[in-house]
Amino acid sequence: MRDGVVLGVERRRRWTDEAKLTILSEVGENGWTVADVARRHDVTRQHIYQWRREMRRKGLWPVADAPVFLPVEMETAQQCAPTARPCDSEMPQITIALRNGRELRCSDRIDNAALSRLVRLLETA
Predict the structure, then answer these.
(1) How far is CA 59 from CA 15, 56, 74, 101, in A?
(2) Do residues 5 and 33 both lie within one domain?
(3) Tens digit of pLDDT for each residue in 80-110?
(4) How many domains does the chain have?
């Protein structure tokens, strides 16, 4: 601003809830991060985080018509072969409480790399 005259583009913009939801839904698509989406739409990362909180408070986020499915393999107790080794359902298990409120239950013999991948997947899903 010089001599009471605004030079350049006015930066204050108004975003509708629909526009905010569209921008929020781009995070995670094709590996895009919050920073990528913010740069793409010329907003700050803080705007995106603020919009998430606002949409959650309004009950609009996460979008109900966009379910997320995770692959799961289940084995029933009847499928376990009678061997000297106990069935998976009888094996010692560990339970991990994640920050987002989810719980991960798995065998105590799980590989560290696999456990790391599972925790990262459940934290971000």
Answers:
(1) 17, 5, 33, 18
(2) yes
(3) 555 555 555 566 788 888 777 788 888 888 8
(4) 2
